[in-house]
Design a protein that fits this description.
There is one protein chain. With 108 residues, the protein is α+β, with helices and mostly antiparallel strands. It has one domain. The protein contains 3 helices and 5 strands, in the order βαββαββα. The longest helix has 12 residues. It is elongated and about 45 Å long.
Length: 108
Amino acid sequence: MLVAKGNQSILREDLRLFFREPPADCRDWRTGRTCGSGHGRVESREIVASTELNDFLAKPWPGIAQVFRLRRRICKELVCTQEWVYGFTSLSPKLRDFSFRQQGCRKP
C-alpha cells in the first residue's frame, strides 16, 4: 500500500480529482465503512476504492490493483476533525472483500 503524501503531490492531486469527479462511465466503485468509539471519541472511516485508474498508473507503479480514498472523522466532545487520505494498493478487490469478512468488519 502506498499513501500519496506531500512528496507525491501530482499523484495525490490526480487521485483527489478522480474521486471528486469520477468519470461518467465509471464501472468499478467500491465502498466500505466502519465506526467505533473508545478513549472518549467516536471515529468513523469510509473508504472508496476503484480499479479504474490501473491502466493509467501501471507504468509508473507496476503491480497496482486499485486506488482508494479514505475519510477519517474523529469526534471528541464538541470538536470534530476530518482527514482525507489517497493512495493505492496491490491488494486485489477480491482479496480486500475476503479480508473484510475475515476481520469481522461491516461492509455496506
